[in-house]
Amino acid sequence: MGATRIQEPQTPGRRERKKAATRKALADAALHLFLERGYDHVGIREIADTADVSTATLFKHFPSKEALVFDMDADREASLLDAVHQRPKDQSLLAALRGYVLARANISQDAEMAQFLELIRSTPALSEYAHRMWMRHEGALAQAITEASGAPQEDPTCAALAHFVLETAALARASTDPQTAVESAFDLLEHGWNATGQGP
Questions:
Q1: For residue 23, is it within any domain?
Q2: pLDDT band with cut points at 50, 70 and 90 for residue 33
Q3: Which CATH number does the domain housing residue 172 bear?
């Protein structure tokens, strides 16, 4: 018998590395210019020039000006679903999702992240885009909640919970006190309106 062949781990080729470097250069240039002068005062051509590429190249990597600001990585959805599927056995679904959203909200305590979030909050186009990007995970989260809870497929309660959990993250992003926003929203989800003592 011949020796077992051990496969070397694959590394990105030169073309892939160049594409990744160009994408990063464009995103970095855009964010720097947006933070320095404001989103509405920076044009696509200026971003491309700063990154030393053509506007056509920019649009090959990013479909819109808004997209330059956000990480499109699919890992975000995976981590959201892991909060449901990988939670400790004694932890409830809502507790796990509260912890996940709180962890995201607490990132804003970082000075650079706070500056980034302020850019989004103060720019309607970016706020709307961020919300659309985040809410695209609604269907996947609803399915994960359905599976984890043993509810029937297309259960409206699971769909509603997924929707409101994601909206809670959006609420936190728009708030100057993200942690309180998240805690208040999840208190409402867990205990209901009547238990909050806010009235009928």
A1: yes
A2: very high
A3: 1.10.357
